[in-house]
Design brief:
The protein is an all-alpha fold. Helices cover 58% and strands 0% of the residues. The protein contains ten helices and no strands. 33% of the residues are buried.
């Protein structure tokens, strides 16, 4: 089997019992998004594939906030597959720099491959899938759906963002609606615009129903 096939098998096993918004199906969607974006870019396709497949192998949200577990797990796996050190370093850098983290996180590494995988991951936080994932995670954390008395918080620090327990709807304003203007690639920007507009229509309908107007 190829390195990519072995990685798929590994990720499927590791994410078998993961929360549904960060499970194998999320990874598979990100992988497909990454391949679509990469088809319009000059890039190292192997790094893009591995970065997409391993980007959420151990999300810090489900590991007591420890952001080192995912990169370490990815490195250990890739070393077991005798992947080139240059490839391993690149993939680890993607995992370490992909997350939103409140929007104020300064990336310490840049590459076209990171831009592609980051766009692919952000696309899965937008549109119909993004809405479904947001409310699923809110339910998973037993959060209120909406509270008109609790306003969204902007420009949160990384720690404030990680520790937020705000109503689920606030997440649209604190992250999701900000992603359209944070995309890196032209393909990512185009797809994000369409999904962003869908979310805006959803919010309009949500508020109309909440207020008993429809």
């Amino acid at each position: 089997m190829s390195l990519i096939d072995n990685t798929i098998t590994f990720v499927k096993e590791k994410l078998r019992d993961a929360e549904a918004g960060h499970d194998w199906f999320h990874t598979e969607r990100v992988y497909k998004n990454a391949l679509l974006i990469a088809s319009h870019e000059e890039c190292d396709l192997t790094v893009v594939k591995l970065g997409a497949l391993l980007h959420d192998i151990a999300d810090s949200k489900f590991n007591d906030g420890d952001e080192t577990i995912g990169p370490k797990m990815a490195r250990t796996f890739l070393e077991s597959q005798n992947a080139p050190e240059e490839t391993i370093v690149h993939v680890v850098n993607i995992i370490e720099n992909i997350s939103f983290k409140g929007g104020n996180f300064e990336k310490k590494f840049t590459s076209k491959e990171l831009e592609i995988v980051q766009d692919a991951d952000r696309l899965d936080a937008l549109g119909a899938i993004g809405i479904a994932r947001t409310f699923h995670y809110g339910g998973f954390k037993n959060r209120t759906i909406f509270d008109p008395q609790i306003a969204p918080k902007f420009n949160m620090s990384k720690e404030e963002y990680k520790n937020s327990e705000a109503p689920t709807l606030n997440h649209f304003y604190e992250k999701l609606l900000l992603l359209k203007n944070k995309m890196n690639t032209e393909t990512g920007k185009k797809l994000a615009k369409e999904r962003h507009q869908f979310m805006e229509r959803f919010l309009s309908q949500f508020y109309a129903e909440w207020d008993g107007e429809v």
